[in-house]
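Can't attach files on this board, so I'm pasting raw text. These are the components:
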Amino acid sequence: MYETTYHRPSSVEEAAALFAKGSEAKYLAGGHTLIPVMKQRLAAPSDVIDLGKIKDLIGVDVSSDAVTIKAATTHSDVAQSGPAQKAIPALAYLASLIGDPAVRHRGTIGGSIANNDPAADYPAAVLALGATVKTNKRTISADDFFKGLFATALADGEIITAVTFPIPAKAGYAKFLHPASRFALTGVFVAKTKAGDVRVAATGASQNGVMRVPAIEAALKANWSAAALDGVNISADGLMSDIHGSSDYRANLIKVMAQRAVTAAG
Amino acid sequence: MSTIKLTVNGKAVSADVEDRTLLVHLLRENLNLTGTHVGCDTSQCGACVVHIDGKAVKSCTVLAGQAAGSNVTTIEGIAKGDQLHPMQAAFRDNHGLQCGYCTPGMIMSAIDIVHRYGGKLDEATVRHELEGNICRCTGYHNIVKSVLDAAGRMNVSQAAE
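---
Top answer:
Structure tokens for the assembled complex are below.
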């Protein structure tokens, strides 16, 4: 790892001010992507600004119609949150599948979606549930937030403060995990909103990161059941193809994981 | 350079380290607590697991500065004098180790698992929960046996306290 200067601000404002002063500053949340990348010398930030101890960024709030997860809340805290489990069980379940127990004790929702790894779990829930990403400057809808591989709508220095998920009528998540990395080889989150809309998002599949799956959304809107997807064909165009699975394999996984997610959602 | 102050195994300690120092290196090189191992150095294998404020974490993926002000427990801090921690005793009694390299991380993860599940542990859960700890001797069978044995002992000893 190259030399860097570590900062631990106690407020979002202080963090943003430190970022503006650094020549090539980076925010650190749980650090379970940034630190490995720094160790490989693929990132060499002048300043590392730790958001993990800012009290305003930690916690889960549940209201009658939404679950708000503050940005530096760890995956294990979301997975174990009784109110979150009750309001959106699929969301707590998704958090329980990320990495391994030690990783879940450090990794955060804000870090996950700011990084937007194409095989990360949280982007699927954010997109399928139509969540709203709050930052220190504005709010961004899920549809406008994810901008392709490791890219988001966040401006330089902008800090995610919370993500608000509307409570759906039904939701489910199914993930075919890579047994070594535990990232999603393909994961699908299905959601039916209280207004009756259906939103489906797949992670780990597309070359451009998390994506909606219109063919599955249309089939589920007509008939919310796993069987309704039997005849659906998912195109392999634009899907990832690597030693772990071809694009055709991933196209089939999207359908199979969607079916399992619908079954889980009930 | 920064001065990092934290509590390790119940003792207040302080070390002057570069900001890029990882917690595992602070423990091993500044505090000479070499029971915590570096295996893969890529957050996969779990040989470096310690507890920060009671939670199992991979100390190769935590900057020393992030641990400042925290309570860190390493493998050296769990026995009471000559009396092994019930998890250590169970690993010894069940031959839960072969080469021993992964053992400190296994034990620290296993204690965290028992704390989170209490008496509700079964074999499948232990195997699933240990997915962040790799034993290259593939000695999982006796490791799982050890954790289940210790879960019983730890509940008994907690009830006795």
